[in-house]
């Protein structure tokens, strides 16, 4: 039972730590996977150092499972929650190089905040009752930090009141379509655009803040073509304009930008600031 607890505790701790780093660095997977890679190499190194010290094969297997297994399990959990395992992707015309075109929605992030909070609480309680000496307080302090992180993540996501996909078609973004996010955990291009003859570029996000500091987020994609594309069989709704229509030229084909706007009393969005994601 103690070995099982050690495995679960290690897995949850590595996952929470990885997601914490992932969130504070702007949801960049490479940094999170880099951290997991360092932890993995460290545990493997410690395991290799143990090999010459014992001839007990069963003990070596047990130590390997307890020490290395949690890192791999945390990797699987993190990958499944953030949109798939890297380097195992089918290349498609609609996928930007080195950057996922998928959107991780508010619902997915809220569920993750619950998991971080619950994981920190469970690990903290188990650590307090099952671990002795100084390590008990180390685990409890780390668990408290994860609980606080879960609350912060939840508060941040609770500010989002609306999100949708916006697809532009045309050389000058003249045709505008929207796709409702609803309850999906993640959305990728094939969910709303089903024509592999055209390249769909992800060009950024438009974040509109109101007076109550609440957010509306548009995830922007662009099919830069002069061809007339039939979208009748696609789950898209045509609209005439956007609150930030006059600032669409700020979004470019080969740069992915996150731009913040402030909603004024007339319902229009005024440019505030921007950040280049890619």
What does this entry show, briefly?
The protein is an alpha+beta fold and 278 residues long. It is 44% helix and 20% strand.
Total DSSP helices: 5
* CATH class placement of the largest domain: Alpha Beta
Sheet with the most strands, sense and barrel status: 7 strands, mixed
Task: Please indicate the count of domains.
Answer: 3
- The structural class is alpha+beta
**Radius of gyration over C-alpha positions, nearest whole angstrom:** 23 Å
Major sheet strand order: 7-3-2-6-5-8-9
CATH topology of the largest domain: Nucleoside Triphosphate Pyrophosphohydrolase
Topology pattern, helix = H, strand = E: HHHEHHEEEEEEEE
What is the level-2 CATH architecture name of the largest domain? Answer: Alpha-Beta Complex
Main features:
Nucleoside Triphosphate Pyrophosphohydrolase; two-stranded antiparallel ribbon; elongated; alpha+beta; 5 helices; 3 domains; 44% helix; 278 residues; seven-stranded mixed beta sheet
Describe the protein's architecture and organization.
The protein has helices spanning 2-24, 29-50, 57-81, 106-130, 133-158; strands spanning 103-104, 160-169, 175-180, 186-187, 201-209, 215-223, 237-239, 257-263, 269-276. The protein is α+β, with helices and mostly antiparallel strands and 278 residues long. The chain folds into three domains: 1-91; 105-158; 161-276, Nucleoside Triphosphate Pyrophosphohydrolase (Alpha-Beta Complex), CATH 3.90.79. The strands form two sheets. A seven-stranded mixed beta sheet has the order 7-3-2-6-5-8-9. A two-stranded antiparallel sheet has the order 1-4. The longest helix has 26 residues, at 133-158. It starts with a helix and ends with a strand.
